[in-house]
């Protein structure tokens, strides 16, 4: 089980620079339609190979739709706009305020309590994110920078969508095989992206493609979307909403390092203190993950 957060950190972390690369050619709604739609198709093909029933139980559809809207559609579209409004590194870190939002929502809605280890992990993660968010907050509230405000707002909207979707699915678990349920949630997200394409009049780009863009899109579809979402829903099914989201604190660290290597982002010296605190918070949870209480299976 400890390998799932590590895999998610790599797949979702490196997905940030991959998306940034693709956004240089493909507009945001079109990118999400390609990524979510193709990811759903890959998972449905895998389900067919494993001879699974491709349609979940009728009672599962409400959870699939709500989870698909919040944790997938809202999250993915807001993230795309975030990357167009601020640096990849900053967007990645600000989006991962979602463990804090998720912990608060889980406390309010599910009655989940924070033990000392989780509370310390949350505090370390919050301190790290605060350090990394400070330059954006200073630009927004000090200089009245509209672009900086969007660069702050979009990641926070993405974080809230993810946290709300995660807590909703813990409160109302969805029956069915994880591969199939994940595939249909991706379909819901792809449907929202398709509506965006039609309303905005986006067109599929015919120019600007090269091996780097194609490779980034392939990574985004296969590992950053299909495999990562499947692993996420497996993890969130087995542990509490708070623990599941706290494990994702490693993702922005990988995302920032990937952005440095692949898209030329250069974090400031203070950023490294933020990365260290975020990673320490994640380590507290991941190293104790096997001891986390699991939800009883029906």
Q: How does this structure look, described?
A:
The protein is mainly α. Helix content is 78%, strand content 0%. It contains twelve helices and no strands. Helix 2 (28-49) runs antiparallel to helix 8 (178-200), helix 3 packs antiparallel against helix 4 and helix 3 runs antiparallel to helix 7. It is globular. The two termini are 20 Å apart. Residues 293-298 have low confidence and may be disordered.
Summarize the structure.
Helix content is 78%, strand content 0%. With 298 residues, it is mostly helical. The protein is globular.
Topology:
Layout: H1 3-23, H2 28-49, H3 61-85, H4 88-95, H5 98-110, H6 116-143, H7 146-171, H8 178-200, H9 211-238, H10 241-247, H11 250-262, H12 269-286
Number of strands: 0
Rg, Å, rounded:
18 Å
Strand residue content: under 5%
Low-confidence stretches: 293-298
- Taken in chain order, the helices and strands follow as HHHHHHHHHHHH
Characterize the overall form: globular
Class from secondary-structure proportions: mainly alpha
Distance between the termini: 20 Å
Mean pLDDT: 85
Bin the helical content.
Answer: over 70%
Biggest pleated sheet = none
Quaternary organisation = single chain
- Counting DSSP H or I runs of 4 or more residues, the number of helices is 12
């Amino acid at each position: 089980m400890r390998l799932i957060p590590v895999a998610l950190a790599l797949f979702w972390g490196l997905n940030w620079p991959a998306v940034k690369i693709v956004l240089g050619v493909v507009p945001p709604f079109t990118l999400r339609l390609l990524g979510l739609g193709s990811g759903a198709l890959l998972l449905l093909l895998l389900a067919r190979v494993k001879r699974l029933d491709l349609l979940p139980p009728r009672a599962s559809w409400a959870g699939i739709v709500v989870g698909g809207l919040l944790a997938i559609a809202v999250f993915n579209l807001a993230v795309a706009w975030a990357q167009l409004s601020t640096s990849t590194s900053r967007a990645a870190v600000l989006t991962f305020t979602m463990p804090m939002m998720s912990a608060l929502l889980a406390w309010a809605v599910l009655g989940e309590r924070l033990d000392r280890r989780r509370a310390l992990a949350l505090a370390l993660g919050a301190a790290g994110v605060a350090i990394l968010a400070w330059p954006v907050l200073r630009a927004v509230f000090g200089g009245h920078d509209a672009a900086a405000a969007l660069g702050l707002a979009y990641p926070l909207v993405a974080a809230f969508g993810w946290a709300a979707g995660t807590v909703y699915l813990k409160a109302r678990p969805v029956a069915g095989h994880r591969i199939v349920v994940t595939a249909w949630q991706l379909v819901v997200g792809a449907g929202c992206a398709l509506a965006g394409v039609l309303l905005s009049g986006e067109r599929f780009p015919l120019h600007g493609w090269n091996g780097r863009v194609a490779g980034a899109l392939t990574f985004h579809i296969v590992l950053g979307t299909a495999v990562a979402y499947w692993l996420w829903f497996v993890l969130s099914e087995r542990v509490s909403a708070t623990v599941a989201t706290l494990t994702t604190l490693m993702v922005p660290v990988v995302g920032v390092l990937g952005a440095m290597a692949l898209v030329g982002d250069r974090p400031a010296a203070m950023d490294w203190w933020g990365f260290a605190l975020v990673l320490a918070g994640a380590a507290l949870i991941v190293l104790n993950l096997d001891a986390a209480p699991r939800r009883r299976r029906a």
